[in-house]
Specification:
This protein is mostly beta strands and 516 residues long. Helices cover 4% and strands 40% of the residues. The radius of gyration is 24 Å and the shape is globular.
Length: 516
Amino acid sequence: MNRRQFVAGSAAGLSALAAGTAFSAEKDTATDYAFEPEHVRRLAQELAKKPYTPPDRSLPPPLAEMKYDAYRAIRFLPDHALWRQEKLPFQLQFFHRGWLYKEKTEIFIVSDGRARRLAYSPEMFSFGLTPPVHDPELGFAGFRIHSRINRPDYFDEVGVFQGASYFRAVAKEQVYGLSARGIALRTGDPHGEEFPIFTTFWIERPAPAAASLVVHALLNGPSVTGAFHFVITPGTETVYDTSAAVYPRTDLAEAGFGTGTSMFFFGANDRRGVDDFRPEVHDSDGLAIHSGNGEELWRPLKNPKNLQFSIFDEQDLRGFGLLQRVRRFTAYEDLESHYEKRPSLWVEPIGQWGPGSVQLVELPANEEIHDNIVAFWRPRDVLKAQREYRLTYRLHWTNGIAGRPELARFTNTRVAAARDGNRLFVLDVTAASVPLPDVKEVRADLTVDKGKLHRIVLQPNPESKGVRLSFEFEPEKDASRAELRCVLRHGDKALTETWVYQWAPSMGADRLPSRG
């Protein structure tokens, strides 16, 4: 199973949203009800006090055993998009249940302070060879958001909510890449990860001139419930202003927030075992962290042979995210996937998050269809059962992020074989807005915790108008991993962000790409 088919199978659902409350189709005003944002938080809070009940995943025979090709043939008909006829600035289209997406997602439309359930109708879809199901209670598997983002006369798809608590977005002239999640639980745990799901959405009808769409979501899973509030603003940079309130059913020691899930198959720093016409294949090429002390970290991603964790302790985190820095088509040479157009996802905390850590999980992958990279913030303290925890943050789907303008960036990390079994590292540094001094006045503050460093060379790079640093790394005998760290300095002043890298033997998995 892979990310594009949906990761890991969903968890929980709600068969009854609130006791004693009846819901019906959007236009059935006789059974609508008053809605306010706190309604979702109260539902999540009450739900956490009850034992978890797995969702009913049963579907009628045409859908129950559906295969991938049959599911792909079911298409939403754009003429039935919500708000299309009203010519509002946003339109909604919906996903059919079936194949891996068997859990029912309830969708409510909020207008004038009232919430009305959107009833399923087979008239919304074309089915290919699958017989349509005439059941208004069938529900949906998620939805996608369309808006004018690239052209004033066309509604492009700008966001998707489908599968567990996963959602994706794009900014102007981007294509889909990495995903975000409402919460990550036990990521990388050998006993298995838990995937709570968004069971219910309330989507506010936008005003005729609205620049943003407001979405509320109820989360439910075996260990936790939650209420999420998204203010979605598409544009040159698409922003999800996010407020989350979570309610553990049990004590949670391994909860992750602001989660990004991405793919790194191979790149210039990790090509062993690769036979492919493309130079690089990845949705993201590094993890960036802006620390509360002003330090900015850059950690290039890898496709490891074995599961790897990296933990960065933070007290007053300013931001973190999985970024796609390499934006040249020639870096990928892929006319179909256009990895140079994949979004970066930057998580900006609003308010103080307190002590915790940014954690990076890298898993081995043998094909580019698998998401093998996860990054999130984990609070230091255990989340206690039956308590409320609130976080506010801003998700930026963007081509890049603004750091300290005086710090140059490590824009390329290349790794190759060197003499005597060593590894050759070649790092390119590009100035942000402040020019770099003459390379003769620059020194490399380069360290490694296990092993030795040889032949350290700094030279100008006229192609990038920056600096190139090269060195050879001699691993310590029988070492399972080593941590490398580098800052370029002018005297005692840092000229660059901090480059950090985790080396492990046979870092590239034995893998054969899906094409080449």
